[in-house]
Write a structure and sequence with these properties.
Layout lengths: L8 H15 L2 E9 L4 E10 L4 E5 L5 E4 L6 H4 L5 E7 L8
Antiparallel strand pairs: 1-2, 1-5, 2-3, 3-4
């Protein structure tokens, strides 16, 4: 059995685009501050969903599913060497 389309293609595209915009996860980075603002590097990228966060490390093969983005901070903090921060991505600030 074949069902008829619910609407025309432009309207369907608009509906899908709206759904993606409404449900998109927030993107963030786990940034390791080295020393006292001596240097920093992006240690991982993550996506925050309403009920959990998915994180992928940038310099090693590590993937995590955590209850919240902030739960990653202790895993990327090394006392007396690095302090981890969550930095929310803002595409409007991109320089390239």
């Amino acid at each position: 059995m074949t069902c008829a389309p619910a609407c025309d293609e432009p309207e369907f595209t608009a509906i899908m685009t709206g759904a993606v915009a409404d449900e998109a996860p927030r993107v963030f980075a786990v940034v390791e501050e080295i020393g006292d603002r001596v240097d920093a590097r992006i240690a991982a990228w993550g996506m925050a969903f309403p009920d959990h966060a998915e994180i992928v490390a940038t310099h090693r093969s590590l993937r995590m599913s955590l209850a919240a983005p902030e739960n990653a901070l202790p895993l990327f903090t090394k006392p007396n060497y690095t302090k981890a921060h969550i930095v929310w991505a803002d595409p409007t600030l991109a320089t390239t």
